[in-house]
Each structure stands twice: as structure tokens, then as C-alpha cells.
Amino acid sequence: MHTYKILKLLPGNKFLLVVCMLLLSTASKSQQQALVAIGNVSGAPGDMQLSELKAVFMGEKQRWKNGDRILIALMKTNTPVGQTTSARIYDMNANELNKFWLALVFQGKAQAPKFFNSVSELADFVAQNPGAIGILDKPVSVSDIKFINIDGQKTF
């Protein structure tokens, strides 16, 4: 029997409860995926608080302590990592994140992030650009990048 037919048989309040539980379980999957912050060896610190990381990715902080411009590297919002990053770092869905960055760039308040289709492209960009920082779902082995501990942890 199809899930919809089973749910349709449940009385009104139970139906709503089951639908809510299904939606919450789907949303919590993106919350459970571990993320890793990486940075170019020049610029990004080795340790950050989650609040600092969010400030960087929200465009509130434009330069590192050494003066390097911060270059944000993100996975495209149609990728699973991009969707998780949107939810965990920005508290937004993919469309909201895209609109957020369009508004910041249009107002001249920040430089647009670079968006990538693959983890290897993102890691290579971070390695080749001083000041670059990115979010991945797993560690990668690329020279000229460092892993940034967030709240003392390798993953967050």
C-alpha cells in the first residue's frame, strides 16, 4: 500500500502529526551532515568560533588579519553540500541564499562568492587563492590549504 494511502486512513490530527514528523526527519538530515572549513595557507586562521565563521560567510568581515581579502568559495546550492551549507551557515534555503548574495553584491557591500560543482574544484580554488575560505563535507588532500577548526573541532 502506498504511503499516501496509509496516511490518508489516519484520523485528521494523526495525519498532520505524521506529515510533520516526516518533514522534520527530512530537514534534520541536512543538519546532521558534518561540514569541514578549509582555507588557503595565507590568510585564514587555523581556529575560529562558529560565530566568526558565519560572520565571514555573511560578508560581514571582508579581510583577514594579515590584510588578505576574504574570498568565499561555496558549493552550488543545488548540490547536497551546498544545501547543507545554506541551512547550517546561513539559516536559509538555496533560493534565499542566492537572493541574499545578489542583494549584497548589487548594493556594493561584498564581493560575490565563487560557486563550484565539485569538491575538487572548490579545494583547488582555495589552494590557488590567498585569503580564500570554503566549506566542504569531507576532508580533501590538496596542498596549500589548511583545515580550520571550528569551536575546537575538525568538523561542525
> Class by helix and strand content?
alpha/beta
What is the residue-mean pLDDT, rounded to a whole number? 86
Q: What is Rg?
A: 19 Å
Q: How are strands sequenced across the largest beta sheet?
A: 2-6-1-5-3-4
Got a strand count?
A: 6
CA(first)-CA(last) distance: 40 Å
Element order, helices and strands?
HHEEHEHHEHEE
Quick one: biggest sheet? 6 strands, mixed
Task: Choose one word for the global shape.
Answer: globular
Helix content: 40-55%
Task: Give start-end ranges of low-pLDDT stretches.
Answer: 15-31
Helices, by number, come to 6
Give a description of the structure.
With 156 residues, the protein is α/β, with parallel strands linked by helices. 45% of the residues lie in helices and 17% in strands. It contains six helices and six strands, in the order H-H-E-E-H-E-H-H-E-H-E-E. The chain is globular, with a radius of gyration of 19 Å.
